[in-house]
Design a protein that fits this description.
The complex is a heterodimer of chains A (198) and B (285). Chain A is mostly helical and 198 residues long. Chain A is 71% helix and 0% strand. Chain A folds into two domains: 92 residues, RNA polymerase sigma factor, region 2, helix turn helix motif (Rna Polymerase Sigma Factor, Chain: A, Orthogonal Bundle), CATH 1.10.1740.10; 93 residues, Arc Repressor Mutant, subunit A (Orthogonal Bundle), CATH 1.10.10.10. Chain A is globular and about 55 Å long. The termini of chain A are far apart. With 285 residues, chain B is mainly α. Chain B has three domains: 47 residues, no CATH class; 28 residues, no CATH class; 132 residues. Classes of the chains: A mainly alpha (198), B mainly alpha (285). At the A-B interface, helix 2, helix 3, helix 6, helix 7 and helix 8 of A face helix 1, helix 3 and helix 5 of B.
Chain lengths: 198, 285
């Protein structure tokens, strides 16, 4: 029996230690996925906890044979969307505003005042954030899930409940746009970016 | 160069190392032979490397060490709403069964069901007079009113129009200049078009009422354009796609569909009784 199967069996039996193992295994993944979605550390913790609460309460709905991580990612994705809705960041369609968290987004990351980090690196990070702000919310979500959370393309499709073709399409367009933003001659001067991002 | 399009379609998989062996070989062979695609691949790889510079704040060791305690306190708090959860015994929250929350959720589900049923009841009683005009317009000897649903020819026609609209939008919004190899799934759209064409004849013949003349005409117009789509020869037949797009525009099909959705001109001078869109239809597009 594989480790995951065993864990699922124990969870099904209501094993407390198994639930703790689940939390310890996935807490970072859920936290960072939520952070990428909502762009705020406190909310990310709140959402990641919500994921485990939902998993705890709804474990009966977990289909045996399915992948535990995919199930949790799906809960985390939905919880993040719900969170954005509740905070009125998504006035109409959730998808439109996912990750469009404005200045409160990843500012924390770029503003980290680590003296070891060179000014050049900080400028580059500011440009990266700026470039991410230029792509559509769906494209950004797919990119975040693939690039920063290491979900495979099929896992992203399952998480977002879209086809794998759509996942590839969003990702392709996102990378193209990022390339344009980061490499185009018209890209704002890093010194300009520093005023906004740092 | 030959194979560039295929190469672009494999690009995303290649960038993230998700290509199966066979496709990986194909991609690598093409890259080795095509400087343009090789340059594109190199540039995108560089972009992804740059994106690695993005930093997510690390909450710190204390945060992770206290995570379980905070979570268990929260669970305890939610288990006994109103009562502050004692921080000293977080693990005891899990000493019971996994399904200890079940009664609470059962009540919530029951409450939701009651609300839904009440909504249906109110909807039926309050909005049922909408069917009155249909009753009034029916001449003696005609078949009894068909409840809105699959057997209603107008609803079927509208469903047909909705589905056709999705196909048309996919084509009209497709921009070959975007160079997005995933932008248009032509084989799929062709298959949907074929399915729709098969239904078109029956739908038109069911729309017998003179007031449905324009809706019938719209279905006929759509059938013509869907036929063109179904007969597109290959995925690379971009010229033919353009011709179809021009056909859609010259016939004003999307405009007519929009009018039809608003219950306007196309349906024959106003919204017909029994043709109110169901919520599911409203949200479909």
């Amino acid at each position: 029996m594989t480790e995951e199967k065993e864990l699922v069996e124990r969870l099904g039996r209501g094993d407390t230690e198994a639930f703790r193992e689940l939390v310890e295994t996935y807490k970072k993944k859920m936290y960072y996925l939520a952070f990428d979605m909502v762009g705020n550390a406190a909310d990310a913790e709140d959402i990641s906890q919500e994921v485990f609460l939902k998993a705890f309460r709804g474990f009966k709905t977990f289909k045996r044979g399915a992948k535990l991580s995919s199930w949790l990612y799906r809960i985390a994705y939905n919880a993040s969307i719900d969170h954005l809705r509740r905070k009125s960041l998504v006035p109409e369609a959730a998808e439109e505003a996912v990750l469009d968290t404005g200045k409160g987004g990843f500012g924390e990351a770029t503003s980290t005042a680590d003296p070891a980090v060179t000014a050049e690196t900080r400028l580059l990070r500011a440009r990266v954030e700026k470039a991410l702000g230029k792509v559509s919310s769906q494209e950004k979500t797919v990119f975040m899930l693939r690039h920063y959370n290491d979900l495979r393309l099929d896992e992203i499709a399952e998480t977002m409940q879209i086809s794998i073709g759509s996942v590839k399409s969003y990702l392709f367009r996102c990378v193209q746009k990022l390339r344009k933003e980061l490499g185009a001659p018209g890209t704002p001067n890093p010194l300009e970016a520093s005023d906004e991002g740092l | 160069m030959k194979g560039c399009k295929k190469c672009r379609a494999l690009l995303v998989g290649a960038l993230y190392g998700e290509l199966p062996r066979k496709e990986k070989d194909l991609f690598e062979r093409h890259i080795a032979a095509c400087p343009a695609c090789a340059a594109e691949f190199k540039a995108l790889t560089g972009t992804l490397k740059t994106m690695d510079e993005r930093l997510r704040p690390e909450p710190g060791q204390d945060f992770w060490e206290g995570y379980w305690d905070r979570l268990s306190r929260r669970m305890e708090g939610e288990k006994a709403p109103g009562a502050a959860a004692p921080a000293a015994r977080p693990l005891k929250a899990f000493s019971g069964s996994f399904w200890s929350f079940r009664p609470r959720w059962a009540f919530q589900t029951a409450a939701a069901l009651v609300l839904i049923l009440a909504g249906i009841f109110i909807g039926r009683t309050v909005f049922s007079p909408r069917q009155a005009p249909l009753e009034a317009s029916r001449t003696a000897g005609q078949t009894p009113a068909v409840p809105p649903g699959e057997s209603d020819p107008v609803l079927r026609a509208r469903n047909y129009v909705d589905r056709s609209k999705l196909v048309l939008l996919a084509l009209v919004n497709y921009d070959p200049a975007s160079e997005d190899p995933y932008g248009l799934d032509l084989p799929y759209q062709k298959q949907v078009s074929k399915d729709l064409i098969r239904q078109a004849g029956a739908i038109q013949s069911d729309l017998k009422d003179p007031s449905q003349r324009r809706l019938r005409q719209l279905v006929a117009d759509l059938e013509t354009i869907l036929l063109q789509i179904a007969n597109l020869e290959s995925e690379n037949d971009l010229e033919a796609v353009d011709i179809v797009k021009q056909g859609v525009e010259s016939r004003g099909l999307l405009f007519k569909i929009n009018l039809s959705e608003m219950g306007g001109d196309v349906s024959g001078g106003g919204r017909e009784a029994g043709v109110e869109k169901t919520p599911a239809q409203e949200t479909k597009i």
